[in-house]
Design brief:
It is built from 14 helices and 5 strands. It is an alpha/beta fold and about 290 residues long. It folds into 2 domains: about 110 residues, Arc Repressor Mutant, subunit A (Orthogonal Bundle); about 160 residues, 3-Layer(aba) Sandwich (Rossmann fold). A 5-stranded parallel sheet has the order 2-1-3-4-5, sandwiched between helices. Strand 3, helix 12 and strand 4 form a beta-alpha-beta unit. Helix 9 packs across helix 13 and helix 10 runs parallel beside helix 13. The longest helix has 22 residues.
Length: about 290
């Protein structure tokens, strides 16, 4: 029985406050796997102690177990339908799932495969080429991110460099990096804002500032409900839900590969295609 089914089953026996909490949980599945106890208390206007007692009444040992069950529910849904997924940094897994390690690992593999399949089924090729075209016409490219999002930013920068396009990675967790980015932003700048859970406020702030200055902002994130989407004129989505960690970068990495492949395809039609290799050869005097 998944957590939604359990909450529905226990609903008739719940107190008024417990029903209030359960209703919020079932209506905000996308938030429940990363929300903090303090945030849930503020959202529901119920004390933290009442929430903890409700978790016990629902049949769970603690709040972490509830969040795990929501992550598990989201991941399982990918087998039949891509669902909203956000996670909070937590490696907590109840003992009842850890006891069968091989079974758990097999399920994670199946969930990862299903997520990738769903991504390809729903991939918007036209949107990918729109972003690729914007990359090619932009004079300055900033790729922003933090944590796993920064790793994706570095991979994107590396791929673009390989086809002769320069870009700057902005680590939105470092003040110096952010300050440097602010000085580069104008109407000729493309900001690729990569934002996966747990979403970082400074990445959002940079996107808002870039939009205010007239820069083009492209969001790369996991769900349409991510806050970064509201500040972007272009959006690329790649699911990242996984059972044991904050994110899995597998599908987002696939998206980066596909996007840079689209850029390369567009570039092959241009007269300056291949010039980067010539310049690199000149650096070592191979053209002489």
């Amino acid at each position: 029985m998944n957590i939604i089914e359990r909450l529905k089953e226990k609903y008739p026996e719940m107190t008024k406050k417990q029903k209030q909490i359960a209703e919020y949980m079932m209506s905000h599945v996308d938030k429940m796997s990363f929300i903090t106890l303090k945030e849930l208390s503020a959202e529901t206007q119920v004390t933290e102690m009442t929430i903890l007692n409700a978790c016990s009444a629902f049949g769970y040992a603690n709040f972490n177990e509830v969040k795990y069950e929501f992550r598990k529910y989201i991941s399982m849904q990918n087998k039949i339908k891509l669902h909203k997924e956000n996670e909070y940094p937590s490696s907590y897994v109840p003992n009842y799932d850890r006891e069968e390690e091989k079974k758990l690992l097999q399920e994670i593999c199946e969930e990862e495969s299903a997520m990738a399949q769903k991504f390809f089924e729903q991939m918007d090729i036209e949107q990918i080429f729109r972003v690729a075209d914007q990359i090619l016409v932009s004079k300055k490219i900033l790729i922003c991110g933090r944590g796993v999002s920064k790793l994706l930013a570095e991979f994107l920068k590396l791929r673009l460099a390989g086809i002769g396009i320069g870009a700057v990675v902005v680590d939105t967790e470092l003040n110096d990096s952010v300050h440097s980015a602010l000085a580069m932003m104008d109407r000729e700048t493309l900001v690729l804002a990569i934002s996966f859970p747990d979403y970082y406020f400074m990445t959002d702030k940079l996107a808002v500032y870039a939009k205010k200055l007239g820069a083009i902002v492209c969001a790369v994130t996991n769900v349409e409900s991510a806050e970064i989407v509201a500040y972007s004129s272009l959006t690329l989505l790649a699911p990242s839900a996984t059972r044991l960690f904050l994110n899995t970068p597998s599908v987002p990495m696939m998206l980066v590969n596909i996007l840079t492949s689209a850029v390369d395809l567009r570039m092959s039609c241009r007269s300056d295609y291949g010039k980067t290799e010539e310049k690199f050869a000149e650096l070592f005097g191979e053209s002489e």
